[in-house]
Specification:
The chain has helices at residues 5-20, 38-50, 58-64, 70-78, 84-102, 112-121, 134-143, 167-176, 190-198; strands at 25-28, 126-129, 152-154, 183-187, 202-206, 220-222. It is an alpha/beta fold. A six-stranded parallel beta sheet has the order 3-2-1-4-5-6. Helix 1 (5-20) crosses helix 6.
């Protein structure tokens, strides 16, 4: 039930958005899309890499690490191919650093909770498609109670090729039993935009992590999930 003008405005904006993109399902990335956490990932990478004598700047992070699977990121850092098991050893070390520094600061992207609630009320199925690992997904759900909104969750353990390959989005659409053309994706990274569009999906990009110019291939660019972000011209 709509109880106030603000709620009605959000519902109308989202309904118009879904109609505009012919949407029957919504798929969301996690890092930088559900939670505004990439600055903490960068800090965690810097802290982790400092211990092994490697430095990574913010631009290099955005281009070569953000949005990619941990295995791809670890192989980039160490400049060599690794088995899944070897890469996971390094991944778990780095991700433990991330969770320790982010636990007290974790919060959803502005407007997210109301956005998910409205999609649920409109009976739009939702899924998460993330390059992250399960322990980080559980970490988010422990702090932000939104798990109930998602019909399925696909992470890096469920795919062979990370973004910008479209595999993760094709798999998610298949699990939702919704055609790719009717899936609307929310992403924060250029590699994620490429992956979703290769899967035949429309993409809305959030400017939480990368510059607006770097997200130009998206079908729409927004700063957050507040109603005014979704006005269709």
């Amino acid at each position: 039930m709509i109880t106030n003008m603000k709620e009605m405005n959000l519902r109308e904006c989202i309904s118009d958005l879904l109609k505009h993109f012919n949407t029957k399902a919504v798929i969301l990335d996690l890092d930088g899309t559900l939670i505004d956490n990439n600055s903490f990932h960068l800090l965690a990478w810097k802290q982790y890499l400092k211990n092994i004598g490697i430095e990574v700047g913010e631009e290099e992070y955005r281009k070569n690490i953000n949005g990619r699977t941990n295995k791809d990121a670890i192989e980039y850092i160490y400049k060599r191919k690794m088995t899944d098991n070897e890469a996971m050893i390094y991944t778990l070390e780095k991700e433990a650093v991330y969770r320790s520094i982010y636990a007290d600061a974790i919060k959803p992207v502005e407007g997210l909770i109301a956005f998910l609630k409205t999609l649920h009320e409109l009976e739009i199925p939702m899924a998460i498609a993330t390059s992250g690992i399960q322990v980080n997904i559980d970490f988010m759900f422990d702090h932000i109670p939104i798990k109930q909104y998602f019909r399925t969750i696909v992470n890096s353990a469920h795919i062979n090729k990370g973004k910008p390959d479209p595999e993760i989005y094709l798999k998610t659409a298949d699990l939702l039993n919704i055609p790719s053309a009717n899936c609307l994706v929310f992403e924060d990274a250029a590699v994620g935009i490429t992956a979703a569009q290769k899967a035949g999906m429309k993409v809305i990009a959030l400017t939480t992590t990368q510059l607006k110019e770097e997200l130009a291939e998206a079908n729409m660019i927004i700063p957050n999930y507040n109603p005014e972000s979704f006005f269709i011209n």
